[in-house]
UniProtKB/TrEMBL annotation:
Residues 35-128, 131-227, 290-391 form the Ig-like domain. It comes from the Eukaryota. Keywords: Disulfide bond, Immunoglobulin domain, Membrane, Signal, Transmembrane, Transmembrane helix. This is Ig-like domain-containing protein. The chain crosses the membrane at residues 238-260. SMART domains: IG, IGc1, IGv.
């Protein structure tokens, strides 16, 4: 009886030393962004040559609940969690969590069991969410006072720095910043208010709400030009500009920025109180000029279809007009291409991540020597940001005859 017991213990010990199971997880917390996915690492090792796959049981546990099980090569998942089955057989049982939420933050336990030997390892997961920043104006009882509210929304964790600047200097007086308020999904909102005395605005003052948060490498900066208009009532125009857009706009379309300011100014002269333009959606406010690439011309073979392609990118808003023009062989006059010429124009518009648009305009031509040889095609673009249309030309085309196949 006693000897049996010891033999059993020795047998168990042998199994353990045989399997040589080791489980490793990172000691530092892992960080994921809300809305995206994250890998929570967990690696095991054992003698893979002798390994019996059916005896491997992996579980991931979060807040006393099993998130997923991997057992007998089968994966069972109970939420937004998965793992790579093939990698799992080779020692990588890292957890892939997708659609990350603030509530997913916490301690995850990686449990690996092989021939009755169980290893549990804990990994910390931190979730971050970057704020959105919007500055709006709210009026006050006094005619001469105006509040600028910097609304910082949807961030996590709670710590945030909201700072107001006027002409590059930090404003300490006349700023009220609320305590972070928790939203339903666990993120926080903050409202920081800058009180502005309209009559004390200097000429074209630059104001800025700057937001620093651990989820972002660089702060978000919302800039405004404060302008005092109308001596009587001191209403104020607020023009929202982001630094990048200012550079872009100034470099690309000279004069547009001032045109924009003047447009807002003239509006505010007409209507009084409503004219104070809240700085919502700076993108909607600004235009970006289109850039045109060269027209792509294929080999023009007599009797075949050819596609001319013109790519226009980086513009905003979306309303862009593309026209195809052409010069018939031996003429100098630009005519517009019409469908009756047996040519079809198509456009494809795509919205880019940076909120600009890209348009691919295509002209399909039935090529003939008499129609196209030494003809020229022009792709012309009109857009609200442009004073004059942009054009690209193909140069004189050369049509080659199709070789005769008998
Ligand atoms: C949280 O909810 C707010 C609206 O209440 C939304 O704007 C934000 O994107 C949400 N954030 C996350 C991380 O789900
Ligand atoms: C383990 O797998 C995850 C994906 O599931 C991958 O991101 C990670 O790099 C892998 N780790 C190792 C050490 O191979
Ligand atoms: C922000 O705070 C100011 C006063 O501090 C208040 O007037 C305004 O309504 C608040 N805005 C929001 C959206 O909570
Ligand atoms: C906020 O400012 C303080 C003091 O300058 C700094 O120590 C802290 O790291 C800042 N916090 C964030 C989230 O940037």
């Amino acid at each position: 009886m006693k000897i049996d017991f010891w033999i059993f213990i020795i047998f168990l010990l042998q199994l353990q030393t045989c399997s040589g199971l080791e489980v490793t997880v990172p000691s530092n917390p892992e960080t994921g962004m809300a809305g995206s996915s994250v890998v929570v690492p967990c690696i095991y090792s054992l003698d893979f040559n002798k390994m019996e796959p059916k005896l491997l049981h992996v579980r991931w546990i979060f807040r006393d609940k099993v998130l997923l099980m991997f057992s007998k090569k089968e994966l069972t998942s109970y939420g937004r969690a998965t793992l790579d089955k093939e990698a799992a057989m080779n020692g990588n049982v890292s957890l892939l969590l997708y659609g990350l939420k603030v509530e997913d933050e916490g301690t995850y336990t990686c449990s690996v069991e092989y021939i009755g030997e169980l290893h549990l390892k804990k990994v910390q997961l931190r979730v971050q969410a970057s704020p959105s920043v919007e500055v709006t104006k709210s009026s006050t009882k006094s005619d001469d006072k105006m509040n600028l509210d910097c609304l910082v929304k949807g961030f996590y964790p709670k710590e945030v720095n909201v700072t107001w600047y006027r002409n590059g200097e930090i404003v300490n007086n006349g700023v009220i910043t609320s305590e972070p308020r928790k939203e339903g999904n666990g993120t926080y909102d903050v409202n920081s208010t800058l009180v502005i005395i309209s009559s004390k605005i200097k000429k074209d003052e630059l104001a800025e709400c700057r937001v620093e948060h651990v989820s972002m490498g660089t702060p978000i900066k919302e800039h405004f030009v404060l302008t005092q208009i109308g001596l009587k009532r001191n209403s104020v125009t607020l023009v929202s500009i982001s630094t990048v857009t200012v550079f872009l706009v100034m470099a690309l379309c000279r004069g547009l920025y001032w045109a924009l300011c003047n447009r807002l100014k003239s509006k505010s002269n007409v209507v009084d109180e409503e004219s104070v333009k809240p700085a919502v959606e700076p993108e909607a406010e600004l235009q970006k000029c289109p850039r045109m690439g060269e027209i792509m011309v294929p080999r023009m073979v007599n009797g075949t279809k050819a596609f001319l392609q013109c790519t226009i990118s980086g513009y905003c808003p979306e309303n862009l007009n593309v026209t195809w023009l052409w010069m018939k062989p031996g003429t100098q006059q630009l005519l517009s291409v019409s469908p009756s010429d047996n040519k079809t124009a198509t456009v494809e518009i795509k919205r880019e991540k940076d909120k600009t648009y890209t348009c691919t305009a295509c002209l399909s031509i039935n090529v003939s020597v008499s129609g196209e040889n030494s003809a020229q095609y022009v792709c012309q673009v009109e857009h609200p940001s442009l004073e004059r249309p942009l054009q690209k030309r193909t140069g004189k085309l050369q049509v080659i005859g199709r070789s005769c196949v008998k």
